[in-house]
Amino acid sequence: MDSLGTSSNEMPINHVEILAHSNDIEANPNQDMEEYNIEYSERAQCLGAAVFGAKTGLFITTLLMMAIEALDENIIAMLLSGFLGLVAGACSMPIEEFVSVDTEVAQMEVHDNKHYKVDEDDKLLNHFQASLASAIGFSIGGMVPVLAAVFIKDYKLLVISVAMLALLVFGRIGSVLTKSKTLVRRTGDDGDGGWITMATIFGFNELIRSHHPATAPLDTLLYSGGSIAVDCPRTVPEVSFFQQQQVQKSLERILYTWAIRHPASGYVQGINDLVTPFLVVFLSEYLKGAIDNWSMSDLSSDQISNVEADCYWCLSNLLDGMQDHYTFAQPGIQRLVFKLKELVRRIDDPVSSHMEEQGLEFLQFAFRWFNCLLIREVPFHLVTRLWDTYLAEGDALPDFLVYIFASFLLTWSEQLQKLDFQELVMILQHLPTKKWTHQELEMVLSLVEGIYQGIPDSEDNRV
Amino acid sequence: MGRGAEEEYDYLFKVVLIGDSGVGKSNLLSRFTRNEFCLESKSTIGVEFATRTLEVEGRSVKAQIWDTAGQERYRAITSAYYRGALGALLVYDVTKPTTFENVSRWLKELRDHADANIVIMLIGNKTDLKHLRGVATEDAQGYAEKEGLSFIETSALEATNVEKAFQTILSEIYRIISKKSLSSSHHSASATVKEGKTIAVTQSQPSTTNSLCCTSS
User: Fold this and answer.
1) Which terminus of chain A has a smaller tally of CB atoms within 10 A, N or C?
2) What is the CA radius of gyration of chain B?
3) Hey, which residues 154-213 in chain B have their CB within 8 Å of chain A?
4) Phi and psi, residue A236, nearest 5°
5) Is residue A337 within 8 Å of residue A367, measured between CB atoms?
6) pLDDT > 60? residue A279
């Protein structure tokens, strides 16, 4: 604080006063006058601390609120930061005041040749009073912008205006009290410097804002482009159960919570599919019979909350090892697609070279496989079986997916080798699995182990 | 090339469908290629693909259409498909003004990743939802004129203007192609050099063309 910076200039003044205050040693001809000065100077010290505290509170709180406002155009964040700044300042001001006065006195004691001794108790009392005064001052000053922000709609401009006005008032109070020389130090250069500072704050605020034009509220960030609300109604449309509004609302809550808790990726289309097996499994505890006859209204709201919590937890756990599948440019998926291509090249060269000849990229069909964990490629009633295998793999799942998907792809190995580019894309994007039963899926899964062990030097060359 | 395909065609045009999530890109495509519409179709993940062969200006043209995912996160994946595309259908939802506001961002995306002379058509979809309309036809028309795009409003649900939209963009591409192949037969050297980029594209996708358009983009 500038009190430390200016204190050396003001030292003689303070010195005189404190000397006067503790003047028991020498007899003074103007005793009455001195008595009067003592009283006044004591009070002035407290008042000075209070006005200085108020000005500091005003500055710091306004500065803090403007900075927060520039980064996040949100009145709540701005108010909260202002209030917290106020509390923090009101706590630290008195400590600083205490230390600074103490240091001054100590300096004077060393500096002074006249060797007076200030009454220890008296000194302590004075410091406490001054500290308290500065704390109250800071609180009052800091309240100005906070209250202004609470009551004024177009907060930014008006908070600044009110702060400037308050600064003027504080400055005036200061100058009225300048009779006491102590106050010259305390209040400093009344309003003018403050006004310049305020104008600078405002300028900074505008500058920061101009460089952050895209600071959007959380809602817009989460919902931009592909929104949870848009996707929930079109989740597994072939199963009528998912068309029930209550099911869609549950899905929405699970996904929304997940998206908020995973800001690095946020909600990515296709994650809505990944919740569905969990939802079905946890609901099957309460709802019996075929899924088409299920109704969410048979469940109490507590039961629904529990199911949602379980689904959220399982989804988080499943995706924890695959976060980079859903971050920018989806590097995790790109890496696994590349691994799949390499694996297929090793275990089935004919189909691999045919695809290459046709100019088919694995990314053109396998991207969705990894993004939705094959959920879109098999009938929904088989998905829980598939999930069973996934969950059994635990942390090794991402790499294990490559083997499952290779086995899945090679189900059509012979057929694929007869097709041209367009037919290949068409069939691989719409694989004929509609009529699949557990038998076909078991076949795919049982071949996985064979692939896993059948690769030459599989231990060293695992892709 | 295209050895498995029995059907004959004179040209093969690659076209991409782009626009915000949920504006109806996939349904425009399914209406055009299979005459199907599904009210609650799944969101598109990455890129989906369909083709249809039709008559354009007396020639048989095979349209190879790449339907892209609308969500921002898929932009890095989908923008790879803009390369080598001769046309782009930029779709917005007439009931959702934000999808129209984002059109300029999609245009920038095309200018960054697609070939410079790509034919772009702006499509306002879902005109069947008359009571929910949020984007005036005149506004979109004005914007399209300003940006030099063709413009049409469609309803994939009612099958209104879907055929016309595809016909229009394919004709436009055809006109540009035939003009170019004409001029390239006169000044072949300069034209090929200018279109060097396209050659790389046809290499990576050998079946992109079977005839005249390989020197154009």
Assistant:
1) N
2) 17
3) 203-207
4) 40, 60
5) yes
6) yes
The DSSP line for B52-73 is: EEEEETTEEEEEEEEEEP-SGG
Q: Measured between beta carbons, which residues in chain A are less than 8 angstroms from residue B77?
A: 329-330, 363, 367
CATH superfamily of A331-462: Ypt/Rab-GAP domain of gyp1p, domain 3 (1.10.472.80)
State how far residue A350 is from chain B, nearest Cα, in angstroms.
17
Q: What is the pTM of this model?
A: 0.65
Q: In what order do the strands lie in the sheet with B119-125?
A: B47-56, B59-68, B11-19, B87-93, B119-125, B150-153
From the list A175, A49, A38, the residue with the least C-alpha distance to A100 is A49
Share of chain A above pLDDT 90, in %: 48
- The set of residues, in sequence order, having a beta carbon less than 8 Å from that of B78 and lying 6+ positions away, is B18, B46, B47, B68, B69
- Residue A352 CA, distance from chain mean position: 46
Residue contact B3–A420, C-beta within 8 A: yes
Measured between beta carbons, the chain A residues lying within 8 angstroms of B101 are none
Nearest-by-CA chain B residue for A229: B22
Per-residue pLDDT averaged across A428-439, rounded? 97
Distance from CA of A239 to the nearest CA of B (A): 11
Instruction: Return the amino acid letter for A245.
Output: Q
User: What ranges do the domains of chain A cover?
Assistant: 2-211, 217-325, 331-462
Question: Shortest Cα distance from B42 to chain A (angstroms)?
Answer: 5
ipTM of the prediction greater than 0.90, yes or no: no
Residue A106 pLDDT > 70, yes or no?
Answer: no
pLDDT at B143: 98
Q: What is the mean pLDDT of residues B176-196?
A: 60
State the alpha helices, DSSP H only, in B119-187.
Answer: 137-147, 162-186
Packed helices A31-71 and A75-111: angle between N→C axes, nearest 10 degrees: 150
The answer to whether the CB atoms of B207 and A358 lie below 8 A apart is yes
Residues of A in contact with B22 (CB under 8 A): 226-227, 230
Looking at the complex, report in whole angstroms how far the Cα of residue B149 sits from the nearest Cα belonging to chain A.
23
B213 touches B13 (CB < 8 A): yes
User: Position of tokens 């979809």?
Assistant: B125
- Which residue do the tokens 């078991």 mark? A442
Which residues of chain B neighbour A415 with C-beta distances below 8 Å?
none
Are the beta carbons of B18 and B97 closer than 8 angstroms? no
Question: Scanning every residue of chain B, which has its alpha carbon at the shortest distance from the alpha carbon of A223?
Answer: B71
For chain A, give the mean pLDDT: 78
Angle, alpha carbons A215-A221-A223 (nearest 5°):
150
Question: Which residue ranges form the domains of chain B, and what is each CATH number?
Answer: 8-205 (3.40.50.300)
A312, A314, A318, A323 alpha-carbon torsion, rounded to 10°: 20
Residue B3 per-residue DSSP state:
T
- Chain A environment of B48 (Cβ under 8 Å): 429
Cα separation, A457 vs A462, in Å, equals 8
CA angle A91, A92, A94 (to 5 degrees): 80
The answer to whether the CB of B17 falls within 8 A of the CB of B64 is: no
Question: What is residue A211's predicted lDDT score, i.e. its pLDDT?
Answer: 52
